[in-house]
Amino acid sequence: MTKIILVLFVVCCVVQISTQQNQQVSPLTYDSRWCNNNQDITNEYRTSIYKFILQLFKSIAVRSNLNFVFSPNSIWIIVAAIAEGADSLTQQKLFQLLSLPNDPCIRQAYYQLATTRVFPSNDVNIKNTRLCLIDDGATLSPTWYDLVTKNSLLEVARVPIKNNQEAAATEIKTIMSSHVPGLNLSGNSVLLDKMDYNGLWTTAFADAVIEQAPFYNLQGEAIGAVDIMRVQRRARMGYNEKLRIKIIEFPVGSDERYRMLFGVIIGNEDLTSIVAGVDDNHVFELIESLRPSLVPINVAIPRMVITSEIDMRVILKDLAVNELWTDPAVTRYISNPPAHPTTFVQHASLVLNTTGLEYAPPEPESAYNARTGLHPILGRDFIADRPFVFGLFDAKTWTCLLASAITQPTYT
Length: 412
Ligand SMILES: *[C@@H]1O[C@H](CO)[C@@H](O)[C@H](O)[C@H]1NC(C)=O
Ligand SMILES: *[C@@H]1O[C@H](CO)[C@@H](O)[C@H](O)[C@H]1NC(C)=O
What we know:
Elements: H1 2-24, H2 42-63, E1 68-70, H3 72-84, H4 88-97, H5 104-114, E2 124-135, E3 139-140, H6 142-150, E4 155-159, H7 165-176, E5 189-199, E6 201-203, E7 206-216, E8 222-233, E9 236-240, E10 245-252, E11 258-265, H8 271-277, H9 280-288, E12 291-292, E13 297-302, E14 304-311, H10 312-318, H11 323-326, E15 335-336, E16 341-352, E17 356-358, E18 381-383, E19 388-394, E20 400-406
Parallel strand pairs: 2-4, 5-16, 6-17, 13-18
Antiparallel strand pairs: 1-20, 2-5, 3-15, 7-8, 8-13, 9-10, 9-12, 10-11, 11-19, 14-16, 19-20
Helix pairs in contact: 2-3, 3-4
The protein binds 2-acetamido-2-deoxy-beta-D-glucopyranose (NAG) (2 copies).
One 2-acetamido-2-deoxy-beta-D-glucopyranose (NAG) is lined by residues 207, 305, 351, 353-355.
């Protein structure tokens, strides 16, 4: 009898200890073993990410004269990594900006989704590196380090920022393999992000018909000739009447794991005002409006190579994130002395080429005059010979991996 009571007592104690630990979980010190993430949070995650990336998109669009490419998802992840180690005031502010919940387990589930969207395969060459370079004299908080590395938010490496700025600067340029706008080594760390994409379309563009064709500016004036890739193929299309934009979808890769969506203006609307007016609901409505055409659509898109280096410190300042760059105390839970990042740069590059895994199947002559099965506003073609937008998405969650606006396509 006493034995049983003793056993019961021990069991109660253990249970009590474990619930106590559970209650002690705080944002910086949570232990993922306590998280039991089995509900599907894809929708909440997507909404949270889009609220943030549309703000980024608008700021970058204005500052880059509507000619840029960037990776929204990876900026979201890096800011989340910094938020996890920020002092509580800044942390709350950043969680709000990223629409991240206070429940660390839900955040962890978001991170799990966000960091598993990109992986290279034979037919889609896509590489993303998120890096925090920290001064070799700084001592990292093991809790923060564990959190960001175990969740694959950031890689952390050492450079001699304080003792050898020149060596540090060289290393940064090598990692980014490009010019680093806004390089500032007055703090103890820098944040670097690199995203390079070159993928094969599931359905190729016709190789034989690359031709030069005029490209027009926002005012409708021809600004020069570009290489135009053409294809006649069935595709999903959609539109948003309020935004005056129509979109077309091209799957990428053998398993159609990624989708590229291109958008052009319907009529004579100014792309600048459309970019300024877009919100997350518009994006979801557009994606939901996609319907397959019953017949081939005439597609023409410029062949392009585009590279952007964006000073994200400037962009985040537009979004009222100031203290991270100016107040060392804000990042004192990341390292000692505080991480105090003074540079945050993203390099993104992308190639749009004709190459794909197979060609569009031949269609009977009659198909080209038959009903498209789509809303009449969409017409029977998709011609990107004036400013357009496009994005690369992962087909499972519709996370935006690359977003771009183009007013001056180039292929060099
Ligand atoms: C570098 O960053 C620090 C901290 O934000 C700032 O005070 C300083 O003016 C910056 N230096 C340059 C050259 O921009
Ligand atoms: C585009 O594809 C062609 C082959 O179809 C290839 O020769 C060329 O190098 C590619 N361009 C880029 C920038 O990858």
